Amino acid sequence: MxxxxxxVLVVAGVALTTLGVGAGSALADVNVQERIVxxxxxxxxxxxxxxxxxxxxxLYRYALRGFAADMGDTRAGQVEADGRxxxxxxxxxxxxxxxxxxxxxxxxxxxxxxxxxxxxxxxVGALASRTARIDGRxxxxxVDIAVIDSGVESSNSDLRVVSGxxxxxxxxxxxxxxxxxxxxxxxxxxxxxxxxxxxxVAPGARIWxxxxxxxxxxxxxxxxxxxxxxxxxxxxxxxxxxxxxxGFGADDGNCGRTDQDALHLAICxxxxxxxxxxxxxxxxAEDGHVHVPAAYREVLTVSSMGxxxxxxxxxxxxxxxxxxxxxLSVFSNFGPAVDVAAPGDCIxxxxxxxxxxxxxxxxxxxPHVAGAAALWRAGHxxxxxxxxxxAILGAREPWSLYDDPDGLDEGVxxxxxx
Length: 418
What we know:
Blueprint: E1 33-39, H1 45-51, E2 58-60, E3 66-71, H2 73-80, E4 85-90, E5 93-95, E6 104-105, H3 119-123, E7 144-149, E8 165-166, H4 181-190, E9 206-211, E10 218-220, H5 221-233, E11 240-243, E12 247-248, H6 262-272, E13 276-280, E14 291-292, E15 300-305, E16 340-343, E17 347-351, E18 355-359, H7 362-379, H8 385-394
């Protein structure tokens, strides 16, 4: 799966282990790999796995019913033939996002840097938002954002991090960010409004770190599903979930049931449980309809734009990536799957080591919209994902991005009335 930042190659599949066939033996099972077993509603993942003699690596109970386990083609066919099984999908390896362009880290602790208002925060109208109330007085919002990513630095002085879950096997059950990407995403959405560092779209919103990507920048479908399942379990507390990751796929119009896409089914059920999802469009400079979760109609898909002066009109200089001010980022995906554009070039945000770093990508654009969704939920606690979506789309600035090849006006995020 492709990351939401470019400069990462697709890992086309997982390693397959072929079992040899000894003389006189029966045909051995082949293509042993981790599979996602999705069960029909009303079934018990624990019981089905036990009945089938399968040792599950993950059990899913909330976003979908099912489990992840190693099995070959023959065994997978036997499992899928069980009347309680909806389908068996293959595991995929997912690389996480990497810095785009000239990533630049601060050399000092962010507490020694007087608070700055990033151009992106200014451009989307957060300074005018009565809910955000950006005034340097550190009045945190009563709203919750899950960051399904590489974890979040819990001790970061500019973030309000609460409990989360580690979905990476073999770790120490820690949600600490060993990659940096998740911490950067969290700051764009919700860095505190205080005297130092940066400020996010929804200042001081509680951040729930969901570690679904490893310290090497890779994760599996089963890990991401673990994160979505945990978020769905906590739907009474979590309002918004950001997924700055993506990969090849499509929307089958049937919540993944036709394409046997477990991630799509899980997100559909999670949205039905009350979670608003914001996702990155991807960074391949192509039509985003061939990328997931960007193609899923149940999510808010975000493309990236250059923003270098915090103002409307496209009068600023080119970005560090070479994108035109108020233009589609040179790396950003586009097309009908995109719901809204937000700044994604050269974004300064929180980073591990209690520092700041500048990164680019649709990974950085998506959490602007996560912050917007959190702002709306903070002011409308009972709003459904459909209502949050309608509010964000209804408030878009009708700006046609420069250099956008699709001719579609997705509009620019605008939270000034939130």
